[in-house]
Amino acid sequence: MSGDILSQSEIDALLSALSTGEMDADELKKEEETKKIKVYDFKRALRFSKDQIRSLTRLHENFARLLTTYFSAQLRTYVQISVASVDQIPYEEFIRSIPNMTILNVFEVPPLVGRILMEVNPNVAYAMMDRMLGGQGTSMNKVENLTEIETKIMSNMFERAIEYYPEAWANIAEISPLLTDFEVNPQFLQMVSPNETVVVISLNTTVGEATGMINICIPHVVLEPIIPKLSVHYWMQTSEKKERKAGELESLETRIKKANIPVVVELGGSTITIEDFLLLSAGDVIELKQSITDPLQVKIGEIPKFIAQPGKLNNKLAIQILDSLKGGDNDDE
User: Fold this and answer.
1) Predicted confidence band at 215 (pLDDT cuts at 50, 70, 90)?
2) Whose CA, among 43, 129, 240, 263, lies 20 to 30 Å from 103?
3) pLDDT tens digit string along 230-279?
4) For residue 173, which of 218, 131, 215, 106 has the smallest C-alpha distance?
5) CATH architecture for segment(s) 44-236
6) How far, in Å, CA of 214 to CA of 87, rounded?
7) Where are the chain's structural domains?
8) Is 180 helix (H, G, I), strand (E, B) or coil?
9) In sequence order, what are the beta bridge partners of 203?
10) What is the pLDDT of residue 148?
11) In a 3-state reduction of DSSP, which class is residue 297?
12) What CATH superfamily is the domain 263-324?
């Protein structure tokens, strides 16, 4: 009765029974407090938490946006792709839910073990192919009669589309999707055992006037090594690490800008013998190899970086930078 909506007459009868003592409110409360039994289907084991499903949803919302941009540019028509649902079901149930003849792209995602499946509704796939061939995007369904050219066009189109998958997964794992199989009959495709739990991400897809679904099926065995990374806590930690790293880089850059470094301007150089050096005294003159018309070399620390000309500024000796030196480690530059 808890799941039914009472009519006004039933409500009046219930209140009347309580007021006359025919029903005891305490007994009703005890029945409410009795432990309820929840039915659990062992054939449909839930192996992912709600938190992990939410993470997969966010991941594929990003992928849907990338696909929308890609197909809009390729097909030159209105394309809209969005996440409709994310469910965990047995593989057998997923296979039964898709059309008998449809477009099936099977991908490996190394370094993760196993394969994922992208199922594209024929209405959407044919509209895409029609646009690729210069048509208006007319939708039709003749999957069982696909020619070799049509098969090649479709497989190439979805193989390029999956290249955006690693970008969507960047915060979770580094993957390299690779198309390994192209099928049209799901009965000929057995990726995992029938009772294996899979996550099915359904994408609402609109191409021009054609609409349909793109389903991405990911078996549990593929996600098993990275399940801990699918938690909100991990995403928050990753975000905090990025913010902390950005803050550290900014702080380091600020400190470097405030660091003091010696700037030395060389008026010239000369070479003398040890004997002449030992005989030097006040008033002696050493001839420099550099002419007074030649530019001066400016060193930052020990490294030559600029050439300049001498002068005065506010009655103080100064230099004016003329050019920068490329390479900088060679004194001859």
Assistant:
1) very high
2) 43
3) 776 555 555 556 666 676 787 888 888 888 888 888 887 888 888 888 88
4) 218
5) 3-Layer(aba) Sandwich (3.40)
6) 14
7) 8-37, 44-236, 263-324
8) strand
9) 83, 214
10) 87
11) strand
12) SpoA-like (2.30.330.10)
